[in-house]
Write a structure and sequence with these properties.
By secondary structure, the chain is an alpha/beta fold. Helices cover 39% and strands 22% of the residues. The chain has a domain at 30-53 and 80-229: Rossmann fold. Helix 3 packs across helix 4, helix 3 packs parallel to helix 5 and helix 4 packs across helix 5 (148-160). The chain has eleven helices and ten strands.
Length: 286
Amino acid sequence: MSIEFNKVGYIYSEKTPFEYAALHDVDLKFSEGKVTAIIGATGSGKSTLVQHLNALLLPSSGKLNILNFEIVAKQKATNLKALRSHVGLVFQFPEYQLFEETILKDLCFGPKNFGATEEEAQEKAIRALKLVGLDQSYLEKSPLDLSGGQKRRVAIAGILAMDPDVLVLDEPTAGLDPQGAIAMMSLFKELNQKFGKTVLVVTHDMEHVLNYCDEVVVMKKGEVYSHTTVHEFFKDTTYLDELHILPPSVVRFRQMLNERGFHLPNDCYDMKTLCALIAKEVKNHG
């Protein structure tokens, strides 16, 4: 089952004075069973792109095939509820997804909407809350009483409770402290590796891209600028400079040493290996 964009365009406020084309003829096929980062400057079309994946936005032109659900511009979309049971989207701003009186009701909403009984929904809610690092004492709290980071965790739990095949995450670690961000990215990687979830992550954090993702899609001015593996993406720092992207720390360190006379390979991406190569080169020239 593929996730594929075919010449997809999207125009906000079409045929009004505020018309704005956010996507232009996007051709893109996401790899199933992978963790893919979607990156790009503000206004490049990242969030617009991912909101097409569960039909929150419908294309102005072109068509999509998402897990055998076809959506064609200017044609009435059908089976959207079924599509949304397979594709879970966490918004960039978690407060958009939290609307019930209590966290328990919020987490149960999705499973019940897709046919779970009250008991089944509560079991899914408790399990999902535990996955994001929160205990059952939160279940009766109001979402209004949560911090920004806690809202982020609850919003992600609400999607996990529905057990979708595809997780779409728009800046999922925003509002989390560094330790919480690492725990959350590790969770997404675990869901990918243990349960075969396809994970699509909009992010600005290149450390997360390097350490947790398999592929990278770069958006630029509403178009797909590149789509490649993570290691290929970080090989050429000149390319990253052109995109105004700050490479991960290990890539910057490697680049700095090479500029000062070292000859370290461009396919080294972890600090332990890099240190071993540095020690070997120093010993050989000692």
